[in-house]
Model the fold of this input.
Amino acid sequence: MPKTPVQFRINGTDKAVFADGGQSLLDVIRREVGDTAPKYGCGQGTCGACMVLIDGEPHLSCILLAEMADGRSIETASNLDQGGQIHPLQDAFMTHFAAQCGFCTPGMLMAAKALLDKVPNPTREQVIDAISDNLCRCTGYEPIINAILDAAQNPSRRSA
Amino acid sequence: MAKHRGRGMAAINYPIGLNLGGDPSQALVHSNPTGKFTVALSSIDLGQGMKSVTRQIAAETLGIPVDDVYVDTADSDTGPHCMGSFASRGTHRVGNAVIAAAKEARGVMMEAAAEELEVDAGDLETDGKGNIHVRGAPHRSITVKEVAIAAQFRQGRTISGRGIFLIPMSGVDPETGAMKPVTTYAHACLVADVEVDDETGDVAVLKMNSAYELGRALNPRMVEQQLVGGAWMGMSHALYETTEPYYPDRDHGPSDFNEYLMPGPGDIAPHDIAVLERPAADGPFGGKGPGEMCANPVLPAVANAIFNAVGIRIDELPITPEKVLRGLKSQGGAKPPQVPFGGPKPNGAARP
Ligand code: FES
Ligand code: FES
Done:
């Protein structure tokens, strides 16, 4: 099968890979880049576990062809901590026990980050809307919603 | 066409574990020369908190910081045997096995410390911070790490312990069929408020109030979170989830998450939870565990609330809009029962 050269920036680092025809962006991120934060849940765009930000917008990487990321900038949950400090969202997720098995968490975090980057003080309804592409089997959503609202209200929260 | 509100409740008596051949679980505990301890289990943590709770139990029993305990559940082929993570048995069965293993390991650790300090092991105590000292003389002290190094490189001891928890097999009385399958029960009561739309058949859960009695809550925040998430799953089982909507006919079953319905973040109901702690006599530090019980009372409470709202009894799950509409049709519309929730008993005696 012919391979397609794809170049993108992921978590601040430039990458060049040869993608198989039809290979998903999720597969490239997990296998070629080696970043296993985005998860393979359903592989058909219905669970949100594979969510990443592309140029700041949330996307389901399992249903994107890798070559569509050419020239774009991708962010995954691996990049949330900066300079040894976890992101306020990660801190809030821990405080609110917003993860049990944790499978949905990388996608939830990216959905939440996309929201807070645009709407620093969202309403509860805006939070619900932002994570409505993301399924969670364990938490009942309430702790996740509370964590995102808390992170928005206390952007300075950090764990040392 | 109208929306009807109703309230239903359910109370449950929930067995912890089961008695298949005694329902045993094993644990192995050992230290390495850094003074850290590993707890080996085959009891799988799939998000319910098995690793966190057994880590706490081991640290408490050994008398060392939680940070110094690592729980390894990596491989059920090579780990000590466990019946599994089911039947709400994890905290109770595995927790007890961990206590037994950690006690044995602690005994060896204290013997090794006694040899180093040249005292009697019975005079030693742990401070929970990584030190062992002579009771009443805290300056005569040695760190757990120093003890572990001495055990490994000088004394030739393994600081380790084995634990199993087994409830003797309960046979069935051939005459009466009676048996005693479990030794401890957890309890719950849940009240659900719903709104039933008699035009669409839609049922919305508006509010849940619950009380759960689950022995000592070994990790209260994790218990609370398990109850929140579990009640959501109960609501999902009551109203949404099924693989065979026309069982036993397999047709029209969902094939993906687009069709397999679950309540989303916009469908959740406020839920007030009271946790009652009545330590179990044979539980690890009194723990029983929330387990599956966190979902169970929601289903009958929602079914009862629908009966209270529109007078139809639906006894097949999930209670889909289609079933609600069929029920309403055969009854000739919404007819809330004349005896509302909390009204007189069927025999006419007033409820308190
Ligand atoms: S794996 Fe991409 S949406 Fe489920
Ligand atoms: S924490 Fe398990 S799926 Fe969300």
Summary: The two ends of chain B are 35 Å apart (CA to CA). Residues A 99-104, 136-139; B 47 surround FE2/S2 (inorganic) cluster (ligand 2) (CB under 6 Å).
